Amino acid sequence: MSPRAHRFLFGRGSWPETRRIGDVLRAETVGGALLLGAALLALLWANSPWATAYQDLVALEIGPHRLHLHLTLAQWASDGLLAIFFFVAGLELKREFVAGDLRDPRRAIMPVAAAVGGMAAPALIYVAVNAVAAGGMLSGWAVPTATDIAFALAVLGVIATHLPAALRTFLLTLAVVDDLLAIVIIAVFYTSALHPLPLLAALVPLGLFAVLVQRRVRSWWLLLPLAAATWALVHASGIHATVAGVLLGFMVPVVRRADGPGPGLAEHFEHRWRPLSAGVAVPVFAFFAAGVSLSGAGGLGAALRDPVTIGVAAGLIVGKCVGVLGAAWLVRRVTRASLGDGVSWWDVLGLSLLAGIGFTVSLLIGELAFGADSAKDEHARIGILGGSLVAALLATVVLRIRNRHYRQVCAAEELDSDADGVPDVYQQDAVPPR
């Protein structure tokens, strides 16, 4: 890694990591487009003359009764498919901190601090709104704390295609850390009844899975049944089953053996499972979760007056921006580091607004906090949809203004005068003038 990266909070990372992040962003951008399409389809269907058919589909129950697996399609999407999403998030986070540029604490401090600040501020705003208002419900404090990776990156891919690599990496890492913190919140605060025996039993298939992957076993017919058993037992324990996805992801080794050909096992699994996560799991969940009726529960007017809706929307629009931007400023003051070449606080403001797009995990937490399909859950979903839309529009205004500058920066980074496949800027260690 270039020495210059240590003196810049948004300094240029290594070329291999930058190239890998670019591949991830392209996959997530496609997934975000599918996510948006699925959410719009659900919203239109739920408010059409055929809304009853949509509700019947959401409530359709399938699966065995053992281990509490006779679930509705909506529950299969939130408990089952999202476990794939969190498995990939676990792989990504472990890879970043073990083998990526963020293994250096001086590079990791910014996105981690921003993720923490971007969760604390929205929660405080939600609590402040609902603590003083009649009809408020404090149990939904965590709903506006999550940033949707696929949705945010899809918007970014459309409005700012020339964003410097360091800022794109920052947004991706912030969202991944955000997801990990969200799963901790779900496990700790939204587990109503814990059954110890299934939880202890889950350690057996999880341990066998860990032993096999540590030996670099890739056989799906061995690993998949163990992963499914771990998921089912965690689900039966009362802890949300998506926790199993993160645990399984953390078991996978990142660094390949010295004599082993090809990519490491974590990278191999990422390539295999990311398309399924971004292209199937998240869009299907969005289809079942975003179909809120705007005429139900007292109508749209009642929803917009509900402190739950106001708290969620304000948390996403204001809280995320204040939390992420404030944490970045605080890290800058404490470390006395520079922002990086060509990076300004307007860039950080744009990304902070973009972090207010909370969708997938926010919808999941809303269901856990208020109960699926309850009036408060529907109002929370309206707050999530409205807040995410406003945050995306505000981010678009800021980032489009900066897009010409991004194009100039990227043109300099992509110059490869010696045709060795690596842009020249990644082979220079000189520190630019302040």
TrEMBL record:
Keywords: Antiport, Cell membrane, Ion transport, Membrane, Sodium, Sodium transport, Transmembrane, Transmembrane helix, Transport. The keyword Ion transport applies. InterPro entries: Na/H_antiporter_dom_sf, NhaA. It is found in: Cell inner membrane; Cell membrane. The chain crosses the membrane at residues 29-47, 67-88, 108-129, 141-163, 196-213, 220-253, 273-296, 308-331, 351-370, 382-401. It catalyses: Na(+)(in) + 2 H(+)(out) = Na(+)(out) + 2 H(+)(in). It is a multi-pass membrane protein. Its main location: membrane. Na(+)/H(+) antiporter that extrudes sodium in exchange for external protons. Belongs to the NhaA Na(+)/H(+) (TC 2.A.33) antiporter family. This is Na(+)/H(+) antiporter NhaA. It comes from Actinoplanes oblitus.
